[in-house]
Specification:
The chain starts with 10 loop residues before the first helix and ends with a helix. The protein folds into 2 domains: about 55 residues, Homeodomain-like (Arc Repressor Mutant, subunit A); about 150 residues, Tetracycline Repressor, domain 2 (Orthogonal Bundle), CATH 1.10.357.10. Helix 5 packs antiparallel against helix 9. The chain is globular and about 60 Å long. With about 220 residues, it is mainly alpha-helical.
């Protein structure tokens, strides 16, 4: 008996499905912005779109799957914002200060987005905590490499040695994690209504000064 080939969906159907996923993620983002992380559930997203929860399962079978997709989307927006800011900076000596300022600017008014990206492992249910390895390998790592490729090219001369490139990449990574640390502390202070001893503008200025001096 000859088996029949599985019919592939038409281009129109594939486009319709991609648009539906985008609509669902946009709804999840709106709920996140308006009401915080706890408001992002399958039921609330379905209600936001005026669709049934079973219909939503066709695109995201669980809240964990929805949160993972939202994290990937938000992280992509972060990378796009940082790359754009760095590439718009005319003076390569200001690359790392620009990176730090752009990271702060991207998240300071939307700390819930920061929390869902960088505290995501605390938001999904066991035993599948955090991002699955395939999502990290196929969707997250390529985007973060893109950022550090851009930073590396900005920080070293075209004929730089491999050792110089590795050093520049480590410095860029340290600057990025320093900005991440600052936003983490600001996020904790915001969540606990316990202000830091220093203002975020003063802390940001000091951090910028440190990395400006590293390139002087």
């Amino acid at each position: 008996m000859t088996s029949q080939k599985t019919r592939q969906p038409s281009a129109r159907i594939r486009q319709k499905r991609r648009q539906a996923r985008r609509d669902i993620l946009d709804a999840a983002r709106r709920l996140l912005t308006r009401q915080g992380i706890d408001a992002v559930t399958l039921a609330s997203v379905a209600a936001e779109l005026g669709m049934t929860k079973p219909a939503l399962y066709h695109y995201f079978p669980s809240k964990d799957a929805l949160v993972r997709a939202l994290v990937v989307t938000l992280l992509g927006e972060e990378i796009d914002a940082l790359v754009a800011a760095v590439e718009a900076e005319e003076d390569s000596a200001n690359t790392l200060p620009t990176l730090i300022r752009a990271f702060h600017a991207h998240y300071i008014g939307r700390l819930d987005a920061f929390r869902i990206v960088y505290c995501q492992s605390q938001l999904v249910s066991a035993p599948n905590l955090g991002m699955d390895p395939q999502t990290i390998r196929d969707e997250i790592n390529p985007r973060t490499r893109q950022l550090f490729d851009v930073l590396e090219e900005r920080l070293v001369a075209p004929n730089a040695s491999e050792a110089a490139r590795r050093q520049a990449r480590r410095l860029a990574y340290t600057a990025w994690t320093s900005a991440l640390g600052l936003l983490t502390m600001l996020s904790v202070a915001d969540a606990t209504a316990d202000p830091l001893a220093h203002s975020d503008t003063d802390l940001l200025a000091t951090l910028v000064e440190v990395y400006a001096a590293s390139r002087a």
